[in-house]
Structure formats: structure tokens, C-alpha cells
Task: structure prediction
Amino acid sequence: GAGFATTDRFSTSIAICHQDEITLFDTGEPCAALMFRAGLNPLAVRNIFISHMHPDHVGGLAPVLFSMYLPGRAPTDEKFREWSVSPLSAWFKDVVTYPEGPVQSQDGRYPPVTLHVPSEAVNAMEVSLPAVYLAREVLPFDLEIKGLEGGTVLDHPEISVRALANTHLSANPAYSELPELYPHMALESYSFSCKIADKTVVYSGDITALTELDPLTPSADIIIVEVAHFDPEDLEPALAATS
Result:
């Protein structure tokens, strides 16, 4: 990912596909567009984890939810033209390749979605999403907004996710006075470990030092590490020391 808009890089967003579901880690823009280009049906998203509230990690959240809202509307709604978004449209079915079959709805509702954000941002999400007309009342699925804490934050038979706090925000001297000015701010930032079956994927998020990943890396099969804040050449010796 790239924190700044460039000609050949995008902000951070990672999709993990398992069973017939998608788990997103961060939604930097243009996450929604990249999902479609990768053939991922947004209606298959069940959990969204936001590592911290920097724009390059959360800026694409509203378009992601909008991409789940639009095809979830009733296809017979007369307000919309035949060429508008519907999971029954030929172009939509041609674009998406995962999951293999259509995402099923029941009584016009799709399975629930959980948005996991740093606890400091829960109230902001409750206000900002309705402000862009993504209110729960219009979404074709139940949306739960949960505050992140360290430890296991998702524990299902097929997938489990562990969150580990890091110092990406709290170590930045530019932010030292913000909690006093904005009492809701707690300078929260997280890394994640995602276990699916017998494989474990570690996603660093933004970190201050590679040693912050030490509790997660020994059991990792795949490690996705951002290298905007240190030299990539430092990765190999640091990770070798944890194996």
C-alpha cells in the first residue's frame, strides 16, 4: 500500500477468502474497485477489520459498504433502471468469480456484516455512516460496529482473528497533544493474526518497529508487512530471528 496517492500504488486493503466468505483487513481506497477487478463479490464480505483510523487505511470504507448496498437492493425496485447494479445483472455475474455461486439472501436480507474498528472510532462510525446515507435502516444486511481490543476478536470454527496493539500512532510526537484536545482519541492501532484451518496469516498494519510483531510471527505461515516506515532490507534478519 501507499499512504499517498501515486500513479502505480494503492492504499492498503487486503481480502482473505475462506469458504464462501470474505474478510477485509483495512479499506484504503480504492478497495471497492479493486475487489470488483479481482472478481470478488462484495456481498460475500462478513467481517471488516480497520487497523487504525488513518485515511489510507479507512478512506475506502464508505465505498465498500456502498458496493454492498447497491447490489443488495430489490432488483424489482422501479426507481432503478435495468442497467443499474443488481446481482442478477449479466455484467455483475460475469465480473464476480468468488464465491463460485451467488450470495444467497433470505427475505431480501443478506447475512450480517461486522465492522471492527478501534474503540475510539465506534461513535464516529455511528455518526459518519448515516451522514453518507449508509444508515442501518437502508442497508440490505444487519451491520454491527464493534470496538477492537487486544486479544481474540473473532472466534469462529472456520476462522479466528487476534488483534495486537502497536505504537504506530502513540509513538508519533505530532499526535501527543491530540487526546487532550479531542477526548475521544486514544491513538489506537493494531496488527492482526488470522488463522484459517491450519494456516496463519499475519498482517502488520502500520508499525513503529518490527519487534512489535514478535508475539504474532512464530506461528505465521504468511506475513504481510508494510514497509513505509522502515527499510525492507530489515525484514529478513528480523523475521529470521523469530523463527
Summary: The CA atoms of residues 123 and 201 lie 29 Å apart.
